[in-house]
Specification:
Length: about 750
């Protein structure tokens, strides 16, 4: 008998028994994780495997139980689990699961509440799977009414009204169905007897008796939503998440065993039968960080972090302001360096206001007691009255604090998490914004002695980029990348960066790093991570971070002509992905062949740079080559950007162009491909989060008539006798703020 049920239907007793077998056996949970990967949706990433293995650090932790929970969350069927256990030759688990299933009764069709008129016909149905010889008993109250899977009430009379339940029996074991309510309603045209027409006496319309309820949950909790309806014929159910169908959920109950922030959003249920259709109310589900009590924590040793998390944002392609060149290289290089120091890094390019706000909110979910948090921003910015503001790419021409993100407000929210270290690296200009006449007052800061601000430039000054022939760098990152991995106190490391910048000829007198800090202990970005006392929270952060960094699994497409094409994926940033196609097999009679991607959502792909033979031609200067085929394997590359704006699953078409040796005409074959929501798109950053804006205490009457001047680019021209470097200072990170300069070596040139 084929097993149809999901892993999620197993009882806690069975799951715990299986977990012990997987934890203690020589053929254990790691072998099972490898075996289930034959189906891509069950593949566990390295971070997920690490999360499983770290469960051993907790007294009640179980790697096997965590793996089974992940499989249940992804709707793994019991037949596939049993297949994989046989594949790894775990005989004890196979035998146990087989016995459990043989003795298990599972109701697959529950009786539904119905209403009809006198003289009508009602059929209550209950069906179950399990060992052979199942018997059925129907009851209304204590009175037995039938002994078959279907109970027919016809002609319907007043005595039939009431609540019915079915008991499924096998020997001494039994299982009760859910209650079904049969209700009579009045109809002017009702006639006695059993009508021969289809569903005579059925009531017009559907009636939802129980609506799904909005709720808040924490990461790792289970989510349960329920929608009940009365109808004749019985109602069917389909669940939707953010208006996207959930194919695995077609009963009146929706259960997700282990939620992450990817499960937040709006849920609705469509209820229907042969004649009618109705939608339930919308249930809004919010997901917060894992609920770990303070009692589960111990004091963090000096020089040890409970985790290290970084959010890197680079804004380049501004809609109404000067576009920048360097943030792509700056974010990429700093990402690689921080990962070498075991930071969980989220790297994002070109975010609008809503996306920046949501990204910061997700970043805060990754923070907790003792965690080192680092925020880096490269883009346009300004500073008014001691507050720094990061400018999103959609900021209007005359932007104010209302259109930007206040850094000090983010610090206040980080302190609420009791972090071990708060580092802000702000690679932006700090000139005053005359368009902004509001003094913003963030929440009160706590005395924590763990705050470090590294500003790329001084107050009321600009930050510059270094223009090279191939890749641009910001001045700040150009020097920071040489020191950031040194095992030094953060402030000592940044002091050295400031000294290096001061010795540079082209920046002297124009840009100088400013350091502000109250750091009292020796905290370094290279500090080790201590997880033994906080494995549950560490595991939750691993899961939360990995949600935003899951790539589609490489797949192989077979075409009718005999050609096999590999479709591969690589991440350039958390919101930018490269897709490549590579020919693996082709018949000898085909002389030329190429697989091109088409039918993309227009907003995500530059069509002129799609299906290119090199990464450079595809618009990617920086992608790590190890993620991609070697140059000897001809491939076509397409770069997908702005994945944070993807609202539905990413769908495109692979178009195969080929020519036979005896034909001049080109032949085409097409295959549609859906790869789900890759990387950061799962977090739905385009959706609003609860507002936590800075408060404006008062407005000083600045000259509101000061207009928005055209964006300028301070440009440095090298003179004789200076450094022979080919580097030059180009655009500043300062948008639409009037400036004055009397330096003969700086001149304004429009973008």
């Amino acid at each position: 008998r084929e097993l149809k049920m999901s892993v999620g239907t197993l009882s806690e007793e069975v799951l715990n028994r299986l977990s012990k077998m997987l934890d203690n056996g020589t053929c254990g949970w790691r072998q099972l994780a490898k075996a289930v990967s034959e189906q891509p949706k069950f593949h566990c990433s390295e971070s997920e495997l690490t999360s499983c293995s770290l469960q051993v650090l907790s007294a009640a932790g179980s790697p096997g139980r965590t793996l089974l929970a992940r499989l249940a969350d992804r709707s793994c069927s019991l037949d596939f689990l049993l297949h994989c256990l046989k594949k790894v030759e775990h005989q004890e688990a196979v035998q146990y699961l087989t016995v459990v299933e043989a003795e298990r009764i599972q109701i697959t069709v529950q009786p539904q509440s119905q209403q009809a008129t006198v003289g009508g016909r009602v059929v209550l149905t209950c069906r179950a799977t399990g060992p052979s010889g199942l018997t059925y008993q129907w009851f209304r109250g204590k009175e037995e009414k039938g002994c078959a899977p279907e109970l027919v009430l016809c002609p319907l009379a007043l005595v039939h009204q009431g609540h019915y339940i079915c008991r499924v029996n096998h020997g001494e074991n039994c299982l009760f169905s859910e209650w079904a309510h049969v209700r009579l309603v009045h109809s002017a045209g009702a006639s006695p007897g059993c009508s021969s027409s289809l569903f005579p006496g059925s009531v017009s319309g559907l009636h939802i008796t129980h609506q799904p309820q909005s709720q808040a949950a924490s990461e790792g909790d289970s989510l349960f939503l329920e929608c009940k309806a009365e109808a004749n014929p019985p109602a069917q159910y389909e669940w939707y998440h953010n208006m996207a169908p959930m194919p695995q959920h077609k009963t009146r109950s929706l259960k997700i065993p282990c939620v992450t922030t990817a499960h937040r959003g709006k849920y609705r249920c469509k209820v229907f039968n042969l004649y009618h259709e109705m939608w339930s109310d919308t249930a809004t589900v919010t997901i917060g960080p894992s609920s770990i009590t303070d009692a589960s924590w111990v004091a963090v040793d000096r020089g040890l972090a409970t985790d290290k998390v970084a959010l890197l944002i680079g804004n380049m392609n501004y809609v109404y302001h000067t576009q920048l060149c360097a943030p792509i290289a700056d974010v990429h290089e700093l990402t690689n360096l921080l990962r070498q120091m075991d930071f969980k890094v989220v790297s994002l390019l070109d975010l609008n206001y809503q996306e920046m706000h949501s990204a910061v909110t997700e970043f805060l979910l990754l923070l907790d007691k003792g965690v080192y948090g680092l925020l880096y921003f490269a883009g346009h910015g300004y500073e008014n009255y001691g507050n720094s503001f990061m400018v999103p790419i959609d900021a209007p021409a005359s932007y104010t604090s209302e259109h930007c993100l206040c850094v000090q407000n983010i610090l206040t929210r980080m302190q609420e998490k009791k972090t071990g270290l708060n580092v802000f690296l702000l690679d932006m200009c700090r000139k005053r914004n005359p368009n902004d006449d509001v003094i913003v007052q963030p929440g009160l800061l706590k005395v924590t002695a763990n705050i470090v601000f590294g500003y790329a430039t001084c107050v009321d000054a600009e930050a510059y980029e270094v223009q090279r022939e191939d890749v641009s760098n910001g001045i700040f990152i150009n020097f920071l990348k040489r020191r950031v991995c040194e095992d030094e106190k953060v402030t000592v490391m940044l002091d050295k960066v400031a000294e290096d910048m001061g010795r540079c000829v082209i920046t002297r007198g124009r840009q100088a790093l400013e350091l502000r800090s109250n750091l009292s202990e020796r905290r370094s970005l290279t500090d080790q991570i201590q997880t033994s006392e906080c494995s549950a929270s560490f595991s939750a952060r691993n899961l939360q971070w990995s949600v935003a960094h899951v790539l589609p699994t490489s797949r192989y497409l077979q075409f009718d002509c005999g050609v096999t094409v590999q479709l591969g994926f690589a991440a350039e940033f958390s919101n930018i992905m490269v897709i490549y196609t590579r020919m693996l097999e082709k018949p000898k009679e085909i002389v030329s062949c190429s697989a091109q991607l088409t039918d993309f959502p227009m907003v995500y792909v530059d069509l002129k740079k799609s299906n290119q033979e090199t990464l450079l031609e595809a618009g990617s200067l920086l992608l790590i080559k190890e993620d991609l085929p070697s140059p000897e394997d001809p491939s076509l590359y397409t770069r997908i950007r702005s994945l944070q704006r993807l609202r539905r699953e990413l769908t495109f078409t692979v178009c195969l162009h080929y020519t036979y040796s005896n034909m001049d005409e080109e032949v085409q074959e097409r295959q549609p491909v859906t790869v789900g929501k890759p990387l950061v798109s799962k977090l739905n950053l385009h959706e609003p989060r609860p507002p936590r804006a800075c408060s404006a205490s008062s407005s000083f009457s600045l000259d509101s008539s000061v207009g928005s001047a055209s964006s300028t680019r301070p440009y440095y021209t090298q003179t004789a006798g200076e450094s022979s470097s080919t580097d030059s200072l180009t655009s500043s990170r300062n948008a639409n703020i009037p400036e004055e300069t009397d330096s003969p070596e700086l001149c304004d040139t429009p973008k």
